[in-house]
Each structure stands twice: as structure tokens, then as C-alpha cells.
């Protein structure tokens, strides 16, 4: 596999709000200087928003702590200090790392499948974990609470593995996406059937987890998930060369020596493994994998894949942290699932993108631009 630069780059037509004809990877019609200047600006804005959200997360709630008093509380733990260090801090770290993982997974899926609607929710990973947890709770299996994340992890890997296994027998990114959606729908149906047979108290306990929630996260549950995600998340950077080639289309990728189907299966396996770590501790948090890539494409539409991947991690962490802050405070003292807030934001962004796309006519692509070999001279 060789890294490709200088080849046409097909882009989603409505994720950036307009149709973009193919061009060199990283090209900007306004000039390369503008592209280079925008990257650090977008990164700085996301980092500042993330830092502000983190401070608000550890300070707001009951009890409320001023930012100036945080260091004193950590050095001399009181009741407020225990709340901050033992409850809010691990919850914040899980939100940040899980959001970064979901953002990276969403970008990898959308780029590899060349479909802006591809999300980790369509891999069967979340429904697989939810099914295992529902079975454990409803049947009353003697599984210690400390092993719940492990059980969810096994279910998530089974759901994602089934998608990967079936996807090996189909060809084309659209077929892979349809396979994932079908398996996710089938497993979700089983979850509904299991929950329907539960008792009232069991349904209440399952509801929060199945909607995606960070409530009750402590260091004991956070550390295994953080180690899992911290070990796997850097591997997504290794996918950048393959994503650059897959964006050119299967025929061009095959001509360049890449086996598109096998590469796509390996990428799906990586995504499934990452999402499993998130689901194990927080449940199936929906739409973050959809929101983060579209947000960074809107902020920096002509960046390279590597830049998009890093920005998608930042955006995913920001979306999840903000959603969790809203889940904890908006209806306080009642806490709502974080997945409900990310779902509302995702649906709103989806409708906005579709409406914006419908108002703009598609830009016709000149025949010469549509043929990569004619623009680059490569065969």
C-alpha cells in the first residue's frame, strides 16, 4: 500500500453543504494558504470549547464548586472534593475519551464506505451489547456488577463481528452499510423482545443504560474502559493512508494495489472493537459518530484525512461532554440519558444538512475532472 497524494478526492455532497468536484487531496479552491491557516484556528476553537466544558462539568452540580476552589478541594478533600474527584472527574474523562473514539469511528466509516450517513450505530455493536445486558438483567444471571462491562463488551464484539463476517460476502460500500443496518435492526428487535418480558423494576433499570448514560460512572468502571480506548484509539491514525485510497473508489484503489473489500472489513473490525469499549461503560450513545465528522467537514471542508481524523476526535469529545453536562443539569435533580441529547442534536444536524443540500443545485463535474487518470497522469 502506498500513500496517495495528488489524486481526485470525492466528497459527500451534503456534509459540506455543497457539491465539491474531485480535486487533489487537501486542495482548497481559495488557495492552500487559507487551508493551512484554518486548521490551527479550528483546532484552537475546539480545544478552548472543550476546556471550558470540562471546567463547567467538574464545577456545576450539587454542590457547585468555583474554579478557584478546585485545587484546594483536591489537596484537602472534603465532601465537595470527593464529589469532584470520585464522581465528576471519572465521568468527564469517560465522556471525553468515549466521544473521541466515536468521532474517529464515524469518520473512518464514512470515508471508507464513502457514505456520509454511515455511523457506528449501524454496525450492530451497540445493539449487541444492549442485548447481552438485557438478557443478564431479565434472566437474573449471577454476573457480578463489576463484570457488567465485560459482558457488554462480549455482546458488542459479537454484534460487530457478525456484521464483519456477513460483510465479507458482499461487495461495495453501500452493500456493507446495508448489511450493518439489517443486523443492527435485527439485534435491536431481539432487545425489545427481551425487555418486553422483563418486570417493571428491571425495565426501569435497563432504560437508562439502553439510551446511553454516564450516570454512576466511577473510577472502578472508568479505568478499564479508559485503558481499552487509550490503547486502541491511536490505531485509527494508521488507517489514514487506506482511507485516502478508498476515497478514490474501489476500481482506482484496486489499480493502486489495495484490496478494497479486505481493507474495509479490517476497518470495520477496528471500529467495532473501539465502539465496544464505549458501549461497555456508557451504553449505546447514539449519533456522536454522525455528528463529529459532519461538524469538522463544515468547519474545515478542504482538510486532509489526517486533519479530519484529529478534529473528529476533538469534536466527538466536545459533543459528548456537552451532552452529558446537559443530561446532568437541565432537569436536575432528575438525570436524563446522554444518548437522548446526542440523538436530538444528531437529528437536528441531519435535517439541517438535508435542507441545505436541497437548496443548492448539484455542481456538474466536468468529464475530465471525473477521470482521475486524466488529471494525474497515473494508471
TrEMBL record:
One of its GO terms (molecular function) is transmembrane transporter activity. InterPro entries: ABC_BtuC-like, ABC_transptr_permease_BtuC. The chain crosses the membrane at residues 41-63, 92-110, 122-141, 147-167, 174-195, 226-246, 266-296, 308-332, 338-355. Its main location: membrane. Residues 1-36, 359-379 are annotated as: Disordered. Pfam families: FecCD. GO terms for biological process: siderophore-iron import into cell. Belongs to the binding-protein-dependent transport system permease family. FecCD subfamily. This is Iron ABC transporter permease. It comes from Nakamurella flava.
Amino acid at each position: 500500500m502506498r500513500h496517495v497524494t495528488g489524486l481526485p478526492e470525492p466528497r459527500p455532497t451534503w456534509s459540506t453543504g455543497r457539491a465539491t468536484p474531485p480535486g487533489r487531496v487537501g486542495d482548497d479552491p481559495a488557495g492552500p494558504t487559507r487551508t493551512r491557516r484554518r486548521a490551527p484556528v479550528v483546532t484552537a476553537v475546539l480545544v478552548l470549547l472543550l476546556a471550558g466544558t470540562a471546567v463547567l462539568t467538574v464545577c456545576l452540580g450539587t454542590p457547585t464548586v468555583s474554579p478557584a476552589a478546585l485545587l484546594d478541594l483536591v489537596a484537602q478533600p472534603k465532601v465537595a472534593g470527593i464529589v469532584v474527584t470520585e464522581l465528576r472527574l471519572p465521568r468527564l474523562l469517560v465522556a471525553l475519551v468515549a466521544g473521541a473514539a466515536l468521532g474517529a469511528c464515524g469518520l473512518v466509516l464514512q470515508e471508507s464506505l464513502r457514505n456520509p450517513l454511515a455511523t457506528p450505530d449501524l454496525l450492530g455493536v451497540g445493539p449487541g451489547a444492549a442485548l447481552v445486558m438485557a438478557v443478564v438483567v431479565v434472566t437474573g444471571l449471577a454476573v457480578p456488577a463489576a463484570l457488567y462491562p465485560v459482558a457488554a463488551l462480549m455482546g458488542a464484539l459479537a454484534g460487530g463481528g457478525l456484521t464483519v463476517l456477513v460483510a465479507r460476502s458482499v461487495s461495495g460500500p453501500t452493500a456493507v452499510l446495508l448489511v450493518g443496518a439489517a443486523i443492527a435492526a435485527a439485534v435491536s428487535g431481539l432487545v425489545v423482545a427481551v425487555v418486553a418480558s422483563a418486570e417493571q423494576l428491571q425495565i426501569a433499570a435497563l432504560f437508562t443504560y439502553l439510551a446511553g448514560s454516564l450516570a454512576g460512572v466511577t473510577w472502578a468502571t472508568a479505568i478499564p474502559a479508559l485503558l481499552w480506548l487509550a490503547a486502541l484509539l491511536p490505531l485509527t491514525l494508521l488507517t489514514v493512508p487506506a482511507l485516502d485510497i478508498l476515497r478514490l473508489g474501489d476500481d482506482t484503489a484496486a489499480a493502486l494495489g489495495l484490496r478494497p473489500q479486505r481493507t474495509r472489513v479490517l476497518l470495520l473490525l477496528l471500529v467495532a472493537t473501539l465502539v465496544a469499549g464505549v458501549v461497555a461503560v456508557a451504553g449505546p450513545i447514539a449519533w456522536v459518530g454522525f455528528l463529529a465528522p459532519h461538524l469538522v467537514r463544515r468547519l474545515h471542508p478542504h482538510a486532509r484525512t489526517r486533519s479530519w481524523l484529529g478534529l473528529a476526535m476533538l469534536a466527538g469529545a466536545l459533543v459528548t461532554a456537552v451532552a452529558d453536562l446537559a443530561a446532568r443539569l437541565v432537569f436536575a435533580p432528575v438525570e436524563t440519558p446522554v444518548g437522548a441529547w446526542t440523538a436530538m442534536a444528531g437529528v437536528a444536524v441531519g435535517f439541517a444538512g438535508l435542507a441545505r443540500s436541497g437548496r443548492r443545485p448539484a455542481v456538474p463535474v466536468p468529464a475530465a475532472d471525473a477521470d482521475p487518470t486524466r488529471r494525474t497522469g497515473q494508471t
